[in-house]
Specification:
CATH topology of the largest domain: Aminopeptidase
CATH architecture of the largest domain: 3-Layer(aba) Sandwich
Mean pLDDT: 93
Radius of gyration: 17 Å
Structural class: alpha+beta
Distance between the termini: 32 Å
Helix content: 10-25%
Number of helices: 5
Strand content: 35-45%
Largest sheet: 8 strands, mixed
Number of strands: 11
Shape: globular
Number of domains: 2
Length: 230
């Protein structure tokens, strides 16, 4: 299996296994870290394991390849489902040019968590919790003391780290902040000898175009599905 196949499962059974909450063939991160959940395979045993993990009324956020999309299973309610792209950075394809020296960024951590959650709630880059900052390095840009843009690292599997939570406050878009932050996060990932990858909604054309300019190419189409156990 490629490290980016069933990537949430891979993360929770390899580099981020210390964070995993487990039940048979299912794994999930602590809710305060992220809502991402996984099972070994979308089989009856997989869904039974998932039910044991989240419990009655619990929710699970899954990522499945388009080749094996979610199929309605008894006892599960689909809250939302949409297509996304898994994109991987290609060596030598990154946009040229250095960082704009006029744009300063700050390292983010536990003291910044409330502001990070607030920005993520407003811009909806994906699941983000009060402990998401624990997954890796996060950096941001401030204006008049207020956090207006950020990006960071999320899933980590052998040889790869995900660029995630790329978001900018709506009042500050169009200034190149996402590009600056992504390039710095990518620089750190590449300095460790790893390959950056990311996930994005397929219909987020503006973001996809930015990522392609930075050297990312689509590896596969995935279904993101949020389920609730009855």
């Amino acid at each position: 299996m490629h490290p980016l196949d069933n990537v949430i499962w891979q993360a929770l059974t390899t580099r981020q296994s210390a964070l995993a909450e487990t039940f048979d063939q299912a794994r999930k991160f602590p809710r305060e870290v992220t809502a991402l959940t996984a099972f070994l395979e979308p089989s009856p045993r997989g869904y039974a394991s998932l039910a044991g993990l989240v419990g009655a009324g619990g929710t699970a956020t899954l990522s499945l390849p388009l080749a094996s999309p979610f199929q309605q299973m008894p006892g599960w309610e689909v809250i939302v489902s949409f297509r996304g792209l898994q994109m991987v950075w290609e060596t030598g394809k990154a946009a040229s040019g250095g960082l704009d020296p006029s744009i300063a960024f700050a390292e983010l951590g536990q003291p910044d968590s409330p502001e990070m959650v607030e920005l993520a709630t407003l811009t909806k880059p994906g699941p983000f919790g009060i402990r998401t900052y624990e997954l890796g390095r996060y950096i941001g840009i401030r204006s008049e003391g207020k956090l207006i843009a950020m990006a960071g690292e999320r899933l980590k599997v052998p040889g790869h780290t995900e660029v995630s939570a790329v978001c900018t406050h709506p009042e500050h878009t169009g200034k190149g902040y996402a590009r600056v932050l992504m390039m710095e996060i990518m620089r750190g990932i590449r300095s460790r000898g790893e390959t950056p990858f990311l996930h994005v909604r397929q219909d987020n054309v503006r973001a996809v175009e930015l990522y392609e300019r930075l050297g990312f190419r689509t590896r596969m189409v995935v279904n993101f599905t949020v389920l609730r156990k009855s």
